[in-house]
Amino acid sequence: MKHPTSRIPRQLCRHFILGAFAATAALAAPPENTDRLATLKQLQIDAGKIVLADEISATADKNLPPHTVVKLVLNPAKDSNINVEIWLPEAAKWNNRFIGLGNGGAAGRINSGSLAGHMARGYAVATTDMGTAPNSDSGIGKPDVWKDFGYRATHLMTTSAKQVIKAYYGRSPEYSYFNGGSTGGQQALQEAQRYPEDYDGIVANVPAHCRTPLHAYFLWNEQIFHQCPFTPTQEENIIAAGNEYMAARELPQTAGKLVSDPRCTGKDIEAVIALAQKKDPTLTAQHTEALRKLFGGPKHAITGERIFDGIPFGSSFKIAHGHLYLFQWVFGKDKDLQSLDFGKDIDTYTAALGPYLNAENADLSAFEKRGGKLIMISGSADSCVPYHASLDYYERVIEHFGSLEKAASFCKFYIVPGMSHGPGPGINKLPDMLGLVMHWREKGEAPHALSAQRIVDGKTELDMPLYPYPEKTSWEAGAFKPVNGPRGGVDRVAERFRPQAAE
C-alpha cells in the first residue's frame, strides 16, 4: 500500500463512518411479529431477568427515531447485581449489527445517552454498569463483584443482549463490535482474550488493561504528592521542561508543544529535572527526589521488580493519582492507604484482584483465527492510563505470534501524539476508530495512515498522518512520511504483578 506523503484525503475517511453500514438495514426482512414486546417479556435470560421492555415513539423523544429500550438485571453469583441496558432500532431500520459499549472509572452506572447515536444509525447497542452500582464501595470484600467488574459483566451483557436481539428481530446479528475506553479498554481486551467468540471487531481506547499495576501506580503517586505537594505553577514548569527537552526529537510542527514519543532513560529523567529546576527555582531538593520517583515509577520495595512505569514527560500530574477504590476492595474502607507499603501489601492486593481484573494474556490466537480485528489507541501525554503497558502488551502479542507482520494482520496499535486521557492539547481529532475496525473486518481493508488533527480554538492548527506502531511520522523535504521507529523501550511490568487469569 502506498503511503501518503502529506495529509490524508478527507474523502477516504468518509468510508469509515458508522453510517456507511446503515444501507444494509434491509438485507433480510424479519419474520412477522405483531407483538415484539410480548416476545421479549416471555424471554428467559440466563442468570437474570428483563425488568423493562418499552417502546419509545418518535414523539416521546423528538431527537431520536422510534426504538425499544430493554433493561436487564443479571445475578450470576451471590453478590452479583449487574444492570444492562439495550436499545433496539425498529426492525425495518436495523442494520444487522450489534455494538457493545464500555464504561469508565469504577463504572456503577449506565450512560443511556451513549446508546442513542448508535441506535439512531441502525445499530442494536448495549452497555452495562459492570455490577458496581451504586458506587465503588460495592466491591469492598466481595470477590463476586471483582469478577463482574473484571470480565463477567461485560461477557454476560454481550450474551444476554444477543438473546434479546434474536428474540426481537428473529435473527442474530451478522456482525458484533465492541468499543470502549479506559475501563472500557479493559473490558475490550478481556473480551478479546477470554471470550474471542463474542465480537468480530474491537476498539480498545486508552485501555486500563494492566489494571492492578496501574492502580499501584496511582497509589505510588498519591503517597508522593501527599508527602511533597506541587503547586500548579511548578507542575506547569515541569511539563514545559519535558516538552522543551524532548523538542529535539520532535517534528518541527510539534517541537516544544508536546511529546510524541515519551520513551526515556534515567539520563533523560535527570536532564528534565535539571531543566525544571532552572525554570522554577522554587523546586526544592525534596521536589527533585519526588520527581525521580514519579518519572521512575513504582518498584517492589523488597525485590526491586517493576510494578509499573512512571508519569510520561509532558503530561499532567492531576490525573496521575487517586482512583484508590481497588485497595479499599481488598483492605477495607477504613484502611489508611498512605500506610500501604509496596512490598507485602502490594503482594496481597495483586493476589486478590490481579487474576480477575488484569487483561494481560498475549495469546489472541482464538480471536485472530475467527477473523477478529482489534485496534488499540494510547495517548503519549496520558498520565491516567500511560502508554507503557499497552506498548509492552503489543510487543508481547508480537512475540506470541512470532512477527510484527502477523500481529499487525489483525491488531494495530496507535500512539497519539500529545493526547491525554481523551481529547486534549495535542492531537485531539482522529477518524472514527469503530468505523475503521468495522471496515477492516467486513471489507478486509486494514487501516494504516490516519488523519490526525490538532484543533485549537476551533481552528485546525496541524493536520498530519498518524501511523501504527512502530512506525513514526517524519517530516522530510516539506512532506510527512512514515519511518520505522524503535521497538520496545519501556520497562516490562514484572510477570508476578500480571498473574494468570482465573475464573
Estimate the mean pLDDT confidence. 93
Number of helices: 15
Return the structural class.
alpha/beta
- Rg of Cα set: 23 Å
| Main sheet characteristics | 9 strands, mixed
Low-confidence stretches: 1-33
Quaternary structure annotation: single chain
Structure description:
Among the domains are: 28-173, no CATH class; 213-356, no CATH class. It is built from 15 helices and 13 strands. The protein has helices at 10-13, 36-41, 113-120, 143-169, 183-194, 211-227, 232-245, 266-279, 285-296, 325-331, 344-357, 365-369, 388-401, 404-408, 433-443; strands at residues 48-56, 67-74, 82-89, 97-101, 124-128, 175-181, 201-205, 373-379, 411-416, 450-456, 459-466, 471-476, 479-484. The strands form three sheets. The chain has a nine-stranded mixed β-sheet, sandwiched between helices. It has a two-stranded antiparallel ribbon with strand order 10-11. Strand 10 (450-456) and strand 11 form a beta hairpin. The longest helix has 27 residues, at 143-169.
How would you briefly describe this protein structure?
By secondary structure, the chain is α/β, with parallel strands linked by helices. Helices cover 34% and strands 17% of the residues. The longest helix is centred in the first third of the chain and has 27 residues, at 143-169.
SSE map:
Layout: H1 10-13, H2 36-41, E1 48-56, E2 67-74, E3 82-89, E4 97-101, H3 113-120, E5 124-128, H4 143-169, E6 175-181, H5 183-194, E7 201-205, H6 211-227, H7 232-245, H8 266-279, H9 285-296, H10 325-331, H11 344-357, H12 365-369, E8 373-379, H13 388-401, H14 404-408, E9 411-416, H15 433-443, E10 450-456, E11 459-466, E12 471-476, E13 479-484
Parallel strand pairs: 4-5, 4-6, 6-7, 7-8, 8-9
Antiparallel strand pairs: 1-2, 2-3, 3-5, 10-11, 12-13
Helix pairs in contact: 4-5, 4-11, 6-11, 7-8, 8-9, 10-11
